[in-house]
Specification:
alpha/beta, Spore Coat Polysaccharide Biosynthesis Protein SpsA, Chain A, 2 domains, 10-stranded mixed beta sheet, globular
Length: about 325
């Protein structure tokens, strides 16, 4: 039995896969296995995976029909042999101390959701370290402070964390295929967090998330509102009262942007489909809730009144006047 299993879902990553796997192989920590899950790739990724598995005793490779990243991760969990579970995406890469850092602190805080820092790398190679302001030392906070992790973009990312396999198996925690959802990491992390006593933040960069500009979570699709709504309702029970107003304000901004995009000229849907989709948003109970709860600094009285009429044409007129 190894101490850590690192699951790497692989799909058409022939150009970047070697960088990813090599960075994991370059860890200062040595007691681990890498599980490469080829999710029906149509490029040379399957051959690259097989070559790594052939040349490295601590790498295993499985091939499966395409089922999406959640299904690939679940297949990796099913065969993982480690005491701890970690994840890395096939186009990203890690620091040599990534694994050692997380193992060290999960052993100190076994009942916590442990997080290291990460860096965003843009298409030009520029790097931006993502920090939680004020957390300059290793910090343990109660689960009630979850909103802070959400606010500073630490909520959805499973690759900056380490998960005890015993807890994963005991509570049957898996990645879920939820209708409309983009961002399947969030339910997995929250399902795990339910069984934790605290959140731990380590101010040490361990991971490089490569922003290739093609993230599904940011590209518009007709169901984007429903996807954001799923995450809104999934997170809401873990937002403490002192952060709830800010949470409502944040999600009004997200929901309203979805509404504006549906109305925009950039959206190629027919007018009939736009009206139908807008009216569905305007009548949705989650939208109505954040509309009622958000403050005037987020949504002024005039706009709030127009939105409360649930009339597509009135809101469209407002957007055109104040664009």
């Amino acid at each position: 039995m190894v101490n850590v299993s690192v699951i790497v879902p692989v799909y058409n990553a022939e150009k970047l896969l070697a960088r990813c796997v090599d960075s994991i192989l370059n860890q200062t920590y040595t007691d681990y296995e890498i599980i490469l899950v080829d999710d029906g790739s149509t490029d040379k990724s399957p051959e690259i995976c097989d070559t790594y598995a052939k040349n490295h005793a601590n790498i295993r490779c499985i091939h499966k029909p395409n089922g999406g990243i959640s299904d690939a991760r679940n297949k990796g969990i099913d065969i993982a042999q480690g005491k701890y579970l970690m994840f890395c995406d096939n186009d990203d890469y890690v620091e040599p101390h990534w694994m050692q850092t997380l193992v060290t602190y999960i052993e100190k805080y076994p009942d916590s959701l442990v997080n290291c820092q990460y860096t965003i790398v843009d298409v030009d190679g520029n790097k931006d370290l993502v920090k939680i302001p004020g957390y300059d030392e290793v910090t343990e906070v109660p689960i009630s402070e979850y909103y802070i992790f959400y606010k500073y973009n630490y909520s959805p990312n499973n690759w900056i964390r380490i998960f005890p396999m015993e807890k994963i198996k005991k509570y049957n925690i898996r990645f879920k295929k939820i209708p409309h959802l983009i961002g399947e990491d969030v339910p997995f992390n929250i399902d795990f967090m339910k069984y934790c006593k605290s959140l731990v933040y380590i101010p040490v960069n361990g991971y490089y998330w490569v922003d290739n500009g093609g993230s599904e979570s940011r590209n518009y699709n007709p169901d984007r509102y429903n996807s954001i709504k799923v995450l809104y309702n999934y997170r809401k029970p873990y937002i403490s009262e002192k952060y709830m107003q800010e949470y409502y304000n944040e999600y009004f901004f997200r929901f309203y942007n979805c509404l504006k995009y549906v109305m925009s000229d950039n959206n190629s849907e027919s007018k009939k489909d736009k009206i139908k989709r807008c009216n569905a948003i305007l009548h949705d109970e989650s939208f109505i809730e954040v509309l009622n709860k958000c403050d005037e600094a987020t949504c002024n009285k005039k706009l709030k009144l127009l939105l409360s009429f649930k009339n597509y044409r009135l809101v469209l007129l407002y957007n055109r006047i104040y664009k």
